[in-house]
Amino acid sequence: MESIVADEAPRLFAVVQEYGDRVDSRIAAWGMAFPDHAEVVSVHDGLRMRLPEAESALHGFRIGNFIRAHLVWFNPDAATSVTNEA
């Protein structure tokens, strides 16, 4: 069963909004990409979308020229380690 789950797991991604020219950014939504569609859930207002592909989510999170949206695929190796210091 673990092999089936590993073989068919969707790819996880985030939609990151960038304010200005690298002024600030935030994760606006999380999504799962399947072979035939993507499911996206907004972090702040509960908006849910079913889209033909992950890249289609970017249109809903761009605002003019000041707020740009980026698709960032989840990379578990990029996580920062947290250590508890006493």
Overview of the molecule:
The chain has 86 residues and is mainly beta. It has one domain (2-75). 8% of the residues lie in helices and 41% in strands. The protein has one helix and five strands; from the N terminus they run αβββββ. It has one helix at 2-8, and strands spanning 11-19, 24-33, 38-42, 48-51, 67-73. It has a five-stranded antiparallel β-sheet with strand order 4-3-2-1-5, with no helix packed on it. A hairpin with a 5-residue loop joins strand 3 and strand 4. It is flat, with a radius of gyration of 15 Å. The mean pLDDT is 92.
Please give a quick description of this structure.
The chain is mainly beta. It is 8% helix and 41% strand. It has one helix and five strands.
Q: How far from one another are the termini?
A: 41 Å
* Helix amount: under 10%
Q: Could you say how many structural domains there are in total?
A: 1
Compute the number of strand runs.
Answer: 5
Structure classification: mainly beta
Strand content of the residues, in percent? 35-45%
* Biggest sheet: strand arrangement: 4-3-2-1-5
Main traits of this protein?
flat, 1 helix, 5-stranded antiparallel β-sheet, mainly beta, 41% strand
Write the layout of secondary structure elements.
Elements (H helix, E strand, L loop, with lengths): L1 H7 L2 E9 L4 E10 L4 E5 L5 E4 L15 E7 L13
